[in-house]
Write a structure and sequence with these properties.
about 230 residues, alpha+beta, eight-stranded antiparallel beta barrel, globular
Length: about 230
């Protein structure tokens, strides 16, 4: 999930992850690509993404001496996912041309939405429980199960892999998730231990909470609102 907004992933073929690039090398490339992305002008967002990839990925593949399509694809996928975490401008570009149907489960809005919940309703949420959200990166809109305790947010994916974050509630309906670990391929490529993700409760309707996810200290970056459904 967001750690979901990052939540609007493009889908690529899966490949073997037997490659040697370190997290530091991937992070360094993603940072350089983000800096360059802001300086690409006179193109629409879709073309800007293509130009960015054409400029940076082939030199990186040659420098790392990746000799097979499988190795190159795996490296590309790691960089692409990491970019969505470290580069707000890249996130905005993807969202602008991502037309994936999510049946109203996810939406992008201009800024933080204040909570409509009372103090007691907020406390009820943070007592924990079992929930699920619809994965926007899946072709069939599959469910990701979420278990919330007083200090943990644990996700279980359809393939049995999991992600674990420390949960810190602020008392006003907002909260942070601090990434701990994951054996899910996408999540561990997206996040590093200690990465922080910001959330806030918006409302509760029928059987689901509406929750925003984004960067509260960056007013120019859109946020994502998604539905977190209660399990019976």
């Amino acid at each position: 999930m967001g750690y979901r907004s990052y939540f609007y992933l493009l889908c690529f073929c899966m490949s073997s992850l037997a490659f040697s690039q370190s997290d530091k090398q991937i992070d360094s490339l993603a940072t350089a690509m983000c800096e360059n992305f802001s300086n690409i002008h006179h193109y629409d967002d879709s073309t800007k993404v293509e130009v960015l990839i054409d400029r940076h990925l082939p030199p990186f593949i040659r420098r790392m001496k990746l000799r097979t399509d499988e190795q190159a694809q795996a490296a590309f996928r790691r960089v692409f996912i990491r970019l969505q975490k470290v580069c707000p401008e890249f996130q905005k570009a993807l969202a602008s041309f991502d037309k994936k149907e999510t049946q109203g489960e996810w939406q992008r809005v201009a800024g933080i939405v204040p909570t409509q919940l009372s103090s007691s309703e907020i406390q009820t949420f943070f007592k924990g429980g079992t929930f699920y959200y619809v994965d926007p990166g899946s072709k069939t809109l599959t469910h990701v199960n979420v278990t919330i305790t007083s200090n943990r947010w644990i996700e279980t994916f359809p393939d049995g892999t999991t992600s674990q974050c420390e949960l810190k509630a602020n008392g006003d309906g907002t909260f942070q998730l601090y990434f701990i670990r994951s054996d899910n391929e996408v999540r561990k490529s997206l996040s590093r231990k200690g990465d922080v993700f910001y959330y806030g409760l918006v409302s509760f309707t029928d059987d689901y909470y509406s929750i925003w996810n984004g960067e509260p200290n960056n007013s120019t970056t859109p946020v994502t609102i998604f539905k977190l459904h209660k399990r019976p």
